[in-house]
Request: fold
Amino acid sequence: MRNKTKGVIAGVAGLALLSGGVTFALWSDSTTVDGGTITNGNLDVEAIGTLAWVDVSADREDSPHAITDLATWRMVPGDTIEGTQGIGVALEGDNLVATLEVSSATDPATFPTGVSVTYDVLQGATPIAEDVPLGTPTTMRLAAGRAGQGAGAPVNAPPTVVIDDVIIPATPNLTVVLRATFDAATPDQVSVQADTVLGDVAVSLDQVRTGADFVAVP
Reply:
């Protein structure tokens, strides 16, 4: 009788241990969501083609006519010539705003007496900078197109220039025009055989996060 009681007690103890180690599973499920791919934008600027010069003197019957070799062409009082250089600009990014700066190391004070040089920057036929003395930097505000922007109200009001190209285009989307003029009133033999050294004209593009569409971050 005593052995039977021991067996029952042991069996109850074993059952208690077994029930204490069992977990009851509740329903569960899972799925995955495609996180997509975040692609960075682009900022790029480069010269397209070469600087092409033409004689645009107002009193020339065949104005404008091409200057085939600037090294052998000779300027005289009353002349005005223009050099056109295509510029390719690429901007891609919903929050991408940049400043385009045209500058030159040339000091206009070194030009021969009677000679002045200015430059314009155009988008198509529309000037975005006009008659700026060479050697004086000009900064223009550019903004990328807002492809993929589902909300918000970007200002991009003039003088901000919107650039829709996301890579450098095959044809220029901006143009820099240099204009050299020899004053017709230059007397005697002033500045004969003098050189007008233009030097390098630099076009630089820098991202900014200030101005229209942006607020100061504390």
User: Anything to note?
Assistant: The chain has a mean pLDDT of 85. Residues 114 and 186 are 6 Å apart (CA to CA). The two ends are 86 Å apart (CA to CA). The chain has one domain: 42-208.
